[in-house]
């Protein structure tokens, strides 16, 4: 039977799950172009326009940071350190799983792989609405564990004030420079470089539609972690799930903003109906109901299917950022599902743990991007490079003959002659032939040698 939708999303989107806003791309392009030409002056103009923020310097000095740290309650500092310990532990385990190696694929032919960290990274820490401390851990700390030499952190002011707790998190995560600068102006400044903000090679971190569009337009000029849109949650629940837990966890993500998809897929009509009823009741006393309620109204869905196999299959079609499994056997989802940014198994594990404290990275693919990529991790800050060395003349001659034949099959004569040179030089040491025939451009002996396998 077809799934039954007890609640459907109200907003029409394009094929990628995006509510189109044609004006965003135009505005972002204008900001980037302006900053590219006018540097700091334009950065100041846009910061004042968008954030009402134009201090003498956007950069925080060491003395500034010391003073700010004194303003942050001790409990918050201790909690930041504990969370960062979790993030660091997991990130270090990820890095340890990436091994440099070298192997001798045939006598005298050595191939190797190295993982080199990116030199300069820009980390964008959103915060125009809330102080998002956790994004500092996920971007700055992860980059530092990867071995990135220099990390710039940018975060916006909040209602004209310094976000002291976020700054503390950025500093403790290891940021080398901290700028109180938000929006596309921050992303553009880091990507193109200005008089006071160094150009980076890579930008990581989530943000609003303008930040996401800025990263999209700048991709190629710099690397980016991934294209991330509004956060998403999808819950797969069976007939044993607690509807109160379902409703609470749907709203925990819906409060991120007014455009957060919150989806329930269950094999129990009763669980679905009670969950919908409880969402409406919980919104009455939820301080962030102004955002969560709009998300639930416009993007919330509740779907009833026949069985859990159908639920897992439908969830895979959504390829959601966060998938939460509230079933009697939650680990079954690990075998049944493939498309998700992160999966949270069982009632004891909620998406909010991943967002705030458990240690895995919360910068994750949205808008069905989980079909082709995972989230931010240590490996995103590493460039996996290869090297080759042929130490044996006989091996080089053998490869030269193979190269000659392979290149001529593609009509790449220049490539073939590079192989020919080594085949003849190292196999027969025919220096007279090399210095005479090769210099004269006579390709006939080389063609015959390659064709005859000599």
What does this protein structure show overall?
The longest helix has 23 residues, at 74-96. It is built from 18 helices and 14 strands. β4, α5 (133-146) and β5 form a beta-alpha-beta unit. Helix content is 48%, strand content 16%. It is α/β, with parallel strands linked by helices. The chain folds into three domains: 22-98 and 118-225, Rossmann fold (3-Layer(aba) Sandwich); 230-375, Nitrogenase molybdenum iron protein domain (Rossmann fold, 3-Layer(aba) Sandwich), CATH 3.40.50.1980; 393-451, no CATH class. The chain starts with a strand and ends with a helix. Strands 1-11-10-9-12-13 form a six-stranded mixed β-sheet, sandwiched between helices. A five-stranded parallel β-sheet has the order 6-5-4-7-8, with helices on both faces. The protein has helices spanning 22-38, 40-51, 62-71, 74-96, 133-146, 164-173, 183-192, 209-218, 243-254, 269-284, 289-299, 308-318, 332-336, 351-356, 393-409, 413-428, 431-440, 444-451, and strands at 4-7, 101-106, 109-117, 120-124, 150-155, 177-180, 202-204, 223-224, 233-237, 262-266, 300-304, 322-326, 342-345, 382-390. It is globular. The model is unreliable at 15-20, 430-434 and 438-454 (pLDDT under 50).
Write a brief structural summary:
The protein is an alpha/beta fold. Helices cover 48% and strands 16% of the residues. Strand 7, helix 8 (209-218) and strand 8 (223-224) form a beta-alpha-beta unit.
């Amino acid at each position: 039977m077809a799934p039954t939708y007890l609640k459907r999303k109200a907003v029409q989107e394009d094929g990628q799950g995006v509510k189109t806003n044609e004006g965003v791309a135009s505005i972002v392009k204008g900001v980037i172009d302006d900053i590219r030409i006018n540097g700091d002056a334009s950065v100041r103009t846009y910061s004042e326009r968008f954030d009402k923020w134009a201090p003498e310097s956007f950069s925080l000095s060491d003395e500034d940071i010391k003073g700010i740290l004194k303003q942050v309650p001790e409990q918050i500092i201790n909690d930041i350190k504990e969370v960062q310990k979790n993030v660091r532990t997991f990130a270090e385990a990820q890095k340890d799983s990436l091994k440099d190696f070298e192997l001798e694929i045939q006598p005298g032919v050595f191939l190797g792989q190295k993982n080199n960290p990116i030199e300069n990274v820009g980390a964008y820490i959103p915060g125009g609405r809330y102080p998002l401390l956790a994004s500092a851990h996920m971007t700055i700390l992860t980059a530092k564990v990867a071995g990135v030499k220099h990390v710039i952190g940018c975060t916006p002011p909040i209602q004209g004030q310094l976000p002291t707790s976020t700054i503390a998190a950025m500093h403790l995560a290891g940021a080398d420079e901290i700028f109180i600068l938000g929006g596309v102006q921050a992303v553009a400044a880091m990507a193109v470089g200005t008089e006071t903000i160094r150009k980076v090679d890579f930008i990581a971190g989530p943000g609003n539609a303008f930040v996401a569009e800025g990263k999209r337009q700048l991709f190629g000029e710099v690397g980016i972690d991934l294209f991330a849109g509004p956060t998403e949650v999808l819950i797969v629940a069976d007939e044993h799930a607690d509807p109160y837990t379902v409703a609470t966890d749907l709203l925990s993500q819906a409060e991120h903003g007014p455009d957060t998809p919150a989806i329930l897929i269950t094999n129990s009509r009763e669980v679905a109906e009670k969950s919908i009823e409880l969402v409406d009741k919980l919104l009455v006393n939820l301080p962030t109901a102004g955002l969560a309620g709009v998300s639930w109204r416009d993007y919330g869905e509740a779907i009833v299917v026949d069985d859990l196999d159908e639920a897992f299959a439908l969830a895979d079609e959504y390829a959601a950022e966060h998938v939460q499994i509230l079933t009697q056997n939650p680990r079954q989802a690990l075998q049944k599902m493939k498309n998700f940014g992160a999966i949270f198994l069982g009632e004891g594990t909620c998406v909010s743990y991943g967002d705030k404290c458990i240690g895995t990275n919360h910068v994750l693919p949205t808008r069905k991007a989980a079909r082709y990529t995972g989230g931010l991790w240590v490996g995103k800050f590493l460039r996996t490079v290869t090297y080759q060395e042929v130490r044996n003349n006989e091996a080089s001659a053998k490869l030269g003959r193979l190269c000659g034949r392979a290149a001529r099959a593609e009509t790449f004569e220049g490539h073939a002659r590079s192989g020919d040179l080594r085949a003849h030089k190292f196999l027969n040491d025919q220096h007279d032939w090399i210095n005479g025939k090769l210099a004269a451009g006579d390709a006939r002996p080389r063609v015959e040698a390659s064709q005859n396998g000599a």
